[in-house]
Amino acid sequence: MFYFCYMKNIHFTLIIFSFCLGLIFMSCGDDSTVTPTTPPGTVLFSKDSISVWLLPGGFQEGTDSVYFSTQNSGGVSIEFTLQSNADSTDHAIGYYGIYTNATPAIPYFPYIYFPVNEPFSTNLNFSTGTTYFSFSVRLTVNNSTTAHYVRLINIKVTKE
Description:
Number of strands: 8
Largest sheet: 4 strands, antiparallel
Structural class: alpha+beta
CATH topology of the largest domain: Jelly Rolls
Number of domains: 2
Strand order of the largest sheet: 1-8-3-6
Distance between the termini: 73 Å
Shape: elongated
CATH architecture of the largest domain: Sandwich
């Protein structure tokens, strides 16, 4: 009788041990093949605004900029609204720029000679590695009798 109970317990123990060992091996995997990806529609970067405001007076100049960097972003969409009350080449000239390592390069139209309130949108592609964006504004005022400004508002970089 003792031999029968002992053998029964050994078999039961071996079955439980084999089951636990099987669970351990089945739960093992190679996580190195999983590459995290950013889903489309994810906002990678956003900023309310960058701006320069100059009061009336003699010659003045001001700048503002913001920089963002990430890894392996792929395709992105850039959006913002450009606003300025620059009025001429004599009193107030505004400038804006987007600098990035994207392909194709962003067309560069930096000069603002007249009041503007326009949305800007473009799609860009990046190769693997570091992705960077720099948004900047600059304003030059000479003997103006009114305050002037240039700004980018609602800046957003979204994964495509």
